[in-house]
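Hi there, hope your week has been kind to you so far. Thanks so much in advance, here it is:
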Amino acid sequence: MRGNHKLLYLPVILAVFALIGILLIVDSRVSAQPSFAESIQPVSSSLCLSRGEIPLEELHWLYVPASPGELRTEVNYGYLAGQLIKNGYVDASFCPGGGMGISGYANACGLAAAKPAVVEIQNMYDAAILEAFRSTGTPPVMLKQLMRYESQFWPGVYGAHYGMGHLTYLGAYTALQWSPILQQVACTAAYGDNCQQRPIDDMMVGTFIAMMNPSCPTCQYGIDEAKAVQSIEYLSYTLLAYCRQATQIVANATGESPDVVVDYPMIWRLALFNYNVGPQCMYNAIGNAWEITDKQVDWKTFSTFVPDDYCQRGLDYVNNITEPFYEFFP
């Protein structure tokens, strides 16, 4: 794992205690992790890293930029602008309503006032996103698209969702379960030298959630930039963990080697689907789709077997993240 991982334990642990009330509420759900996502015969996760020859129609979200500048965007995000105004990092006092519209979003005047900060923040992590790809193999355009869709790059707490990837308690548990690197990082942060053969527990999960949340009221724009950059790598490892879990689910649901059932673009679509709606939805759909096809399962075929409203929201989630947002010329 690249970078300096010297961790400041005290602030992290204090943040954990602030979260512990929420964590205890959902703790009992961890023991009910579904068996279909567990390893029957562990399969290799190499499919998540086997880019190979990617179809041209998939490169708008799976392309690897040559430099961070290719990831640059100048979108005027209403929620990000609203949070900057609401929290006093941008002055829009001259605007109607103080620059605020409804539900925490900026109005038109607020958008104009906040735009320089909004553009700066949404591109603050481009180098970190590209570096995370080199460390983990997680597709960089996909990662930035996920941050855009989940949080508009605002790292605050939204309900029970934390950081720029809106990680939940169960999401963090899954990440630690399927990423030995993250499990070791979280365990060391929580327990220091006493981290030996320790199972995942509330303290580790809460510590990891705190590490993913770079909110800082005294920092510029309310973001601890150094912590935010580090959280990008952790989020990248989290998505790789979900891809590993998705690979195992494919094997368990079909009884086949995952690379027989799906290709590289498809396994990352399934990883995103899994990240949003969980393994049960994916297990059922991929198993049923495989039963009726005589070739690799594509996204269109998979989508027809996603059964209910809850699971179907995962289709919209994936479609939004993998939409043609960039125009690359490979």
Notes: The longest helix spans residues 225-254. Confidence is low (pLDDT under 50) at residues 1-35. The radius of gyration is 20 Å. The chain is about 55% helix and 0% strand.
